[in-house]
Amino acid sequence: MTLGWHPARRLLIGATWKLKTLAANTKIEWTHRTWNPVRGCSMAKGSETGGCLNCYAARMSARNLPELKSPTTGQSFARILESGPRWTGDVELIEKALHLPAHWRSPQRIFVNSMSDLFHEALPDEAINRVFAVMATCPQHTFQVLTKRPERMLRYLNGKPLANLWLGTSVENQATAEVRVPLLLQVPAAVRFVSYEPALGPIDFAQGVDWIIVGGESGPGARGFDVAWARRTIEHCEIEGSACFVKQLGARPFEEVGGEHRRLVLLDRKGGDWNEWPADLRVREFPKPAIPIPSATLVQNVPLPSASADAP
Ligand code: SF4
Question: What is the domain range of residue 152?
Fold first, then answer.
């Protein structure tokens, strides 16, 4: 990550990245693809009324779409309750999805488990081993694993970091950041990143995070997003020499001007069109991985997948 860029250069580079990151099968701007070898989840400790409350994955899973049901039980992983879509708590490794990355020849950034949490307490280590084995044998890709359970991630990972694996944790306010970021910083990884989305309050970030993604909440029940939180994050990254990626301003962005709470009216319902943003918020940077080591050195004692991977 280069420091001290001229703002105009930053905008230009951001625009270039935007083109490069047009998603192959996802609208998530900081990745190319999502890969979901695990389904099912439950609210993470500390995020029940915060980052997990309006969980998009639970809402989608409660729709009873055949492709989101359990292949073994035929049941959905979530259902609609009075309080909203809620997980059943079942979590399952999806065999037919496990080897998909081996079939994607061109190098891609792959967000692992956008619809679950790889380090969920109900998922056995053996299942996590199998996901890691696939990542270790696909060095052409960069895998981005994001969890709200960094304590288990830290317990699980005790080898050298995979060169093609970026590990991250999600936080939404100072309380979750204070618990999760210090754990993340102990994890061996080529890139350690934080997803500060949905941002629900200001955060003073600790030093040492390579990449911070910041964004406001969208979807039903979306809560407000003070663009000052994004500005503060951009400033922190500039000072620290970290990369910053402003993903979206959410459905209810606002700012304080002269002591007044002023709503930003945007056409994009997620606040994801940066052409509508104040110029200083148009920051979309990526980290530079610092550990170019052979991927084969990471995962020890993990059975590698067979050559006969499932077809996509
Ligand atoms: S950890 Fe992620 S997938 Fe699981 S309930 Fe929370 S937001 Fe949803």
Answer: 7-37+93-297
